[in-house]
Predict the structure of Diaminopimelate epimerase.
Amino acid sequence: MASETRPFLKMNGLGNDFVVWDAREKPLRLTPEAIAALGDRETGIGFDQMITVERSSLGVDAFMRIHNRDGSEVSACGNATRCIGRLLMEEAGKELVTIETGAGLLHAFDADGPRSVTVDMGVPRLAWNEIPLAEEFADTRAIELQIGPIDDPILHTPAVVNMGNPHAIFWVDDVEAYELERVGPLLEHHPIFPEYANISLAHVFDTDQIRVKVWERGVGLTLACGTAACAVGVAAARDGRTSRKTTIHLPGGPIGIEWRESDNHVLMTGLTEVEFEGEVDLDTLAWRKTATGDAPLAAGAAS
């Protein structure tokens, strides 16, 4: 029996990269081991997240299923939402699409230019049991958590925010002064975070300008993380460090964040890119590029 080959798109939002499958007509389920193998940057395609576009049970434009590189399934990914929003808008010829996710319904719409997309990420969750945390804190702008010696901690008192997934933000003077690749895994799996957490280092270096470095749970260091950018923007405004409209500077580039006062929704705006088309043998996981540059979502449809 011949093996099954499925096409995919490789996309990124400011360097936060994804493999995208269209499973609306033909379902696709890969084991965590297969996802991790495809996500390996040395031996596989290499990506931060794997995105499966499926039919929505709610009748909206699509359901977006998200797996991290380690094979774990998560509820939200801001940069991926922008990428999938762009594809769905191009496919349908619309300026606004609604995407069902594990974190709820998200709306994506055209921003400034064909590659720039804004996503309404909804209302941030700020209560300790919504993050969630393992113990109660009345004020989540700065919780009691530190790493390192008690009298001289390396990092301490982060803000915590849930933007569809849990985030901890440590305010620092220099995001490059810390070995985030070393402390990130420890903080991600700290007992205070029962669902683990994304860890960000953030520095306000100018009016409403924040430099951020992110350790993403289940992924590691990443060039960009959309939900982290949202979380940092919210945390900065809550603490009076910035206004409600900020630019978050990640290693992959800037993301515009607005925590709208009228309804408390967080709007995220940034660029998207289609890198190439490819196809994967689902039995052997061997893969190859078939085209480069921008391509429609139909390139990822079942063959």
Remarks:
- The longest strand covers residues 5-13.
